[in-house]
Amino acid sequence: MLTVEEALAKILDEVAPLGTETVALLEAQGQVLAEDIISTVNVPPLDNSAMDGFAVRWHDTLGASGDSPRVLKVIDTVMAGAVGKKTVTPGTAVRIMTGAPVPPGADAVVQFENTDDAERRAEGRSADEVSIYETASDGLNIRRAGESVAEGETVLRQGTAIRPSEIGVLASVGRREATVVRRPVVAVFSTGDELTELGRPLPEGKIYDSNLYSIASLVQRTGCFAKVLGIAEDNEQSLVEKLEQARDADLLITTGGVSMGDYDMVKDLLDRDGEMIFWKVRVKPGKPLAFGKIKGTDGRSIPHLGLPGNAVSCMVSFELFVRPALLKMMGKANVAKPTVDAILEENVKNDAGRRIYDRAFITRRNGSYYARLTGPQGSGILTSMTQANGLVLIPEENLSMSKGETVKALMLDWNEAYNI
Ligand code: AMP
Ligand code: MG
Asked: Can you tell me the distance from the alpha carbon of 143 to that of 51, in angstroms, rounded to the nearest whole number?
């Protein structure tokens, strides 16, 4: 039986980054840039003011202070977005707002707070003059043209994952679209005669199909398109029917039908239709994991991950094996889950002879991470996943681990909700 690492390596060997597409800026979040972005503009385009204040010639302010102001003649006002036409000559100043281009002749901006501007206005005195209370320096409060980005500069490199800050940078250089690695289309169907679709009454002996939904939403959260195909019954005709609808996908996920009892049917079908690469991984939950390829349209072969039917097993298998594959297909450089070292808050047994990933809630206190199991770890107890924000890894060679020992925890959710 393969180890987790061996199985993952085999899967990653069989997948590659997909082709590229050009998408509107707001659609690109989470995708990976497939081009270098070279700016065709300066950002900012012109020297502009970093403050609301007065554009001056700094020599005019030499020796100025609160006790010894310099009085300058105010010849113009420039708002953000406007361009001042008047030149600041010796003894003059231009009222200027943040972001407005610095008028010709000026070489510094004195902020309102260091002038008598507010007093003058409050007292209703003439705004044709201003008293400067500060000795400015050359370039004071001026943002230089091209200071953030110079024309011709490469602002983002191919291979960069796009987040809101990258979207902002793309917008700042005027890009409305970006060429990115395409999002995988992932076909998903569940298998099992015991499954009932949502919206129908539950006949005796049946269960609702939760895997279809947990897996499809994991696909979506990874940033891929889920092609949700529904339930296949445990017979060849029904399986073939679903398989036909998966042939235009980039990857196929099925759940169920891979454990001892009914495995042969899926295996036979896959053998005939494509290729079986492995079945079974030395891990709990998730031992009966099948990986192979089916024939796709245009002579492509489509990776197929047959996840175990148990509700927890299939979600954990997704996190361990499917998500990294999808991230690689999306062009991401790193596909490993973030992990932390966490201190066990209880004793944990490993009687499986396999590596265990137990559901846990990870917290942080005084700079250390702590892991508390979510309770019973049965592979069908899906509510244990709702109480978990991580999976703790118990190595197969450890028959037990004690409270206080350090374990690796894979973080499933790492955001504000968990205060860690
Ligand atoms: P299997 O791998 O097909 O033998 O399924 C193992 C067990 O997982 C089944 O007996 C069900 O209890 C459960 N199961 C299988 N498929 C689903 C599903 N789609 N949703 C929820 N539970 C499932
Ligand atoms: Mg089944």
From this structure: 10
Q: Distance of CA 88 to CAs 144, 189, 284, Å?
A: 18, 72, 76
**pTM above 0.85?**
yes
Q: Residues 130, 120: contact at Cβ < 8 Å?
A: yes
Q: Which two tokens stand for residue 101?
A: 């281009």
Question: 255 falls in which pLDDT band (50, 70, 90)?
Answer: very high
Q: Which two tokens stand for residue 315?
A: 């979600």
Query: From its phi and psi, is residue 261 left (phi > 0), alpha (psi between -120 and 50) or beta?
Result: alpha
Structural contact between residues 15 and 301, judged by C-beta atoms closer than 8 angstroms:
no
CB-ligand 1 contact for 211 (6 Å cutoff): yes
CA angle 374, 376, 381 (to 5 degrees): 95
Distance CA 114, CA 93 (A): 14
Contact between residue 286 and residue 280 where contact means Cβ atoms under 8 Å apart: no
Record the tokens describing residue 5, joined without a space. 């690492």
> Mutate which of 207, 305, 384 to test ligand 1's pocket (most atoms within 8 Å of Cβ)?
207
CB atoms within 10 A of CB 327: 24
Both structure tokens of 408: 């690796």
- pLDDT for the residue numbered 260: 73
pLDDT more than 70, % of the chain: 99
Distance 257 CA to ligand 1 centre (A): 8
Ligand at minimal distance from the CA of 288 is 1
List strand residue ranges (DSSP E) for 288-338, in order: 290-295, 301-307
Q: Are 37 and 156 in contact (CB under 8 A)?
A: yes
Arithmetic mean of pLDDT, 100-113: 98
